[in-house]
Amino acid sequence: MTLSEELTWRGFVNQMTYKDITELDGDPISFYWGVDPSACSMQVGNLAAAMMVRHFIDYGHKANLLVGGATGMIGDPDGKKAERDLKTLDEINANVAGISDQYKTVFAGKDFSIVNNYDWFKDINYLDFLRDVGKNLSMTQLLDRDFVKSRIGEGGSGISYAEFSYSMIQGYDFLHLYREFGVTLQVCGADQWGNSLAGVEMIRKLESVEAHVYSTPLIVNKTTGVKFGKSEDGAIWLDENLTSVYRFYQFWLNVDDAGVVDYLKVYTLLSKGEIEHIENESQSDPSARIAQKRLAYEVTAIVHGERRAQTAERVTKHIFTNVSSSKLTIDDFDMLSDELPTAESGNLSQILVDSGAAASKSQARQLILSGAISIEGQKVFEDIVLESLTILKKGKNTFILVR
Length: 403
Description:
Elements: H1 3-10, E1 30-35, H2 44-58, E2 62-67, H3 89-106, E3 112-116, H4 118-121, H5 126-132, H6 139-143, H7 146-152, H8 161-164, H9 166-181, E4 185-189, H10 193-207, E5 212-216, E6 230-231, E7 234-235, H11 245-253, H12 260-267, H13 272-284, H14 290-304, H15 306-321, H16 330-337, E8 342-343, E9 346-347, H17 348-354, H18 361-369, E10 373-375, E11 378-379, E12 385-386, E13 390-394, E14 398-402
Parallel strand pairs: 1-2, 1-4, 2-3, 4-5, 8-14
Antiparallel strand pairs: 6-7, 9-12, 10-11, 10-13, 13-14
Helix pairs in contact: 9-10, 11-14, 11-15, 12-14, 14-15, 15-16, 17-18
């Protein structure tokens, strides 16, 4: 399979400046993809584009992964109805470090370079920039951007010169990377198409060279029709301090049936044959959620490593299928302790009170006598003493870790 065939099959085709996608199947191309440090972590929306980048690398193209220490000082205004709140320099530096570390994880073992646009913007003279670069960027092109029209039109909130200039700054990234590293292609999400074209125009005017942009569609939940990557608790982050490994795994485990095969194509490195096999198995037994289980494992392994993915898988099996606690490791219990109410070993009634599962010992005893408490699938009808690591279940959906 060629790169163009891989991208097409996986659903990574959107707008591009190439006349034909098969132009990607030729000689190696030096390209770049970037993320602004508006947070200390990427979200699963960024991860979709990152997975596309993995395929570009695997087919022999040279990746320059940009983290926007300079553009992050302003913030991308595209899609925003009002001015962003500016981050402090300390926040930006911390976010740059966080995203750089995630590049190293997601692209582990691959050939790539990390670049920070602050490194070349920090020494640029403002007047020189306007004379050499700004003079070659059309105001008409900027004013035609939808987000600019919405902000300066009737009822709009207005736009600062800084945010208005964002496209010019991002465009210069492309120009600089062309001059320094021979980069002739920017890959991006569909929402960055307009910003990316500014760089193509700069390179054409200042270097008389044809550069290109290739964009991937934004991932949409087929069931809800909204942008993919949100849960009831908000965005799904790659940083486990923002979205725990367990909750990250659960997010993928609970994706919609209508989109799960598409998510397997986008978010995993499984082959076409493997995914088609999973799809057939899932259609034969939809209730088993075979595709969701494989998706959850594969994506968690890419972002958090095989060991953490195995832990999340075991923990999930224990909670939802009553697998014996003896099969769980210390890592498993550590993961559970971050997710479940926890109580010290002792009398069952006291454990229920300490964990908040019962308001008093008398209520705890009523729960026990009524058969509402179970341990590893077995109902408990007396106030026994628990002395080892285990998990209690109250009713159908409340779990308590006993340590």
